[in-house]
Amino acid sequence: MKTFANRVKQNLQWDHGVDYSARLTRRQQPKKRKPALPIYNHFLLTEPQRECFEVVLVSPRNPLNIGAAARAMANFGFRHLCVVAPYEGHWREAKSAVGASDLLQDAKRVESLADAVAECTLVIGTGTLQHRKPEQTVIPLPELTPLVGAELAHGGRVALVFGPEKRGLTREDLALCHVLVEIPTDPRQPSMNLGQAVAVCLYELARASHPLPPQPNTESGAPPSSNTESGAPPSASAERRTAKVGNHAVGASSASPREAACAQDLELLAAVVAETMQVANYSPAAMQKANRHDLDLLLRRLALTRPDARRILGLFRRILWRLKRQISLKD
């Protein structure tokens, strides 16, 4: 029987040129994995750009909303989350952070918005205009991407700030923002869930019609290439907006936009100017809080560079020293 079986096997190999023993061996071998597909959404920000982007949640009440915001960040590749004075102490254990538990564990926790955005050169507030009068530039959601892209291309750091669920960002919070972005909603139901608002804004950054411009190469010092060179001309509305908002504002300064004053620089300058105003009896004590609010708005509208902020800081420190010295001599 063995001889007959061997002859049949040889005849089949001779007739069809098939090696059945090799075929059996191949079946026993594990299947090779298919090569990984490239990222389907090539409009996502690059890794260096995402490293310079932060999502800030101010006084969130529901841990589930914090988890949903973290999940939305993970969906679009963002990793830096900062939570300001959360209402619940166990927010890091939110079950809604599906696939983003590590992001939630690594999130920063601070006590004030000023601490959260201290290193940022562009702070973008979010909210509805249904019950508030804006005191800074308001941009529609579709113009968020050109604004963020230009800031990142100049080597800046961006913070996208969301307020608490019930009331949103306060007037004091918005004074620390350079611009306010409005999500278009129906007037009959303008309020959005916190996690949904984060997802909508981050999706808008991902669905840009053109990829965001690359960041400059800080090692070689080469300037970033413009959209015109890449064949994608900027929109007229984006040009008008960048002329009003951000540290790269047209005509704001001849210094490099990469030397923009961060929020910490502006906070220090505002504190010294406010103290100088107080020592000089600029206004009654009851007006000091309102003056500080207007001063915060003014410094962000000026779009100061870091060297300019330092010069102004030195000037007011000198004035403050002179005023205090005169008072001490009189005493």
In short:
By secondary structure, the chain is α/β, with parallel strands linked by helices.
Account of the protein in words:
- The protein has 331 residues and is of the alpha/beta class.
- It has helices at 2-16, 20-28, 47-51, 63-75, 101-106, 113-116, 144-153, 171-174, 194-206, 236-242, 263-279, 288-302, 306-330, and strands at residues 53-58, 81-84, 108-110, 122-126, 137-140, 158-162, 179-182.
- The protein is elongated.
- It folds into 2 domains: 47-213 and 244-249, Alpha/beta knot; 263-330.
- The protein is built from 13 helices and 7 strands.
- α5 links the parallel β2 (81-84) and β3.
Residue share in β-strands: 5-15%
Q: In CATH's first tier, which class of the largest domain applies?
A: Alpha Beta
**CATH architecture descriptor name of the largest domain:** 3-Layer(aba) Sandwich
Number of strands: 7
- Report how far apart the termini are: 124 Å
Main beta-sheet annotation: 7 strands, parallel
Strand order of the largest sheet: 3-2-1-6-4-7-5
Number of helices: 13
Poorly predicted runs: 218-244, 246-257
* CATH homologous superfamily (4th level) name of the largest domain: SPOUT methyltransferase, trefoil knot domain
Structural class: alpha/beta
